[in-house]
């Protein structure tokens, strides 16, 4: 029973959030069990371009380090804010959410060619948090009971916390910058005079992730099939019946 309940709760998680967080956990467990090595996962332009190890373009987003505080901290924020985005502003727009993943991932890959970044999972988490925070500007936040602030300051709080943990701030800054680029193109530019929406979701993604509901012909319930508005008998009546009634 516990297994069935856990599985049901798991299946209630939105599909993109469920797929991404599951892939992150499986990748980390595989490294922890020595099934794969982090050296097979990190972003390496030379191995990607010369050895065609294209899987590194994906695995660089899936590994958050060995099991420990840093891993659980990142996974909690990834799951929480990814799910809130998918169930909030992207509700019913899974294809658009996938486009956000692809667009941000491509920009991070391009950034990694110029900034020495080996794993981009943390930057991806900050990007998700940044987009959520900009779309929920009036939400009040409490960080471990230490401080209260508005949602737009959350990425900066996480940046400061990352510095305290001894992490490189370049990872967080890349995530925030790309999150701002997406927010500007998606939420700011289209609302400007003469602005337009530059990020457009391909139709094949909409058909794949957001299929239109099937139209069904309305069939009245059996008990309502012979009911007419107002209870009046609208069936054609015999004129002789009216004469008999008046006579």
TrEMBL record:
Q: Does the keyword Transmembrane helix apply?
A: yes
Specify the superkingdom: Eukaryota
Q: Does the record carry Phosphoprotein as a key word?
A: no
Protein name (record): Derlin
Please report the organism this UniProt entry assigns to the protein.
Parnassius mnemosyne (clouded apollo)
Query: Where is the protein localized?
Result: Endoplasmic reticulum membrane
Report any Pfam family annotated for this entry.
Answer: DER1
Q: Which residues form a coiled coil?
A: none
> Which keywords describe this protein according to UniProt?
Endoplasmic reticulum, Membrane, Transmembrane, Transmembrane helix
Instruction: Cite the residue spans of the region called Disordered.
Output: 224-247
Family per record? Belongs to the derlin family.
Q: Which residues cross the membrane?
A: 54-77, 97-130, 164-185
């Amino acid at each position: 029973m516990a297994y069935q309940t856990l599985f049901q709760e798991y299946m209630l998680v939105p599909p993109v959030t469920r797929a991404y967080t599951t892939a992150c956990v499986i990748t980390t467990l595989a490294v922890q069990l020595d099934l794969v090595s982090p050296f097979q996962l990190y972003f390496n332009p030379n191995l990607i371009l010369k050895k065609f190890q294209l899987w590194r373009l994906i695995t660089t987003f899936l590994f958050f380090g060995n099991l420990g505080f840093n891993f659980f901290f990142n996974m909690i924020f990834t799951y929480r804010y990814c799910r809130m985005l998918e169930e909030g502003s992207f509700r019913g727009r899974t294809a658009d959410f996938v486009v956000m993943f692809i667009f941000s991932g491509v920009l991070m890959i391009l950034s990694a060619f110029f900034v020495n970044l080996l794993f981009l999972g943390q930057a991806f988490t900050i990007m998700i948090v940044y987009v959520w925070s900009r779309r929920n500007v009036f939400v009040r936040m409490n960080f471990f009971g230490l401080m209260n602030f508005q949602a737009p300051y959350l990425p900066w709080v996480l940046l400061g916390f990352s510095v305290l943990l001894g992490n490189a701030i370049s990872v967080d800054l890349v995530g925030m910058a790309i999150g701002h680029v997406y927010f500007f193109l998606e939420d700011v530019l289209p609302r400007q005079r003469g602005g337009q929406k530059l990020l457009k979701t391909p139709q094949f993604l909409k058909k794949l992730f957001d299929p239109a509901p099937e139209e069904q012909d309305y069939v009245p319930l059996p008990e309502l099939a012979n009911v007419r508005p107002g209870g009046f008998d609208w069936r054609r009546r015999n004129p002789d019946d009216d004469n008999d009634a008046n006579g």
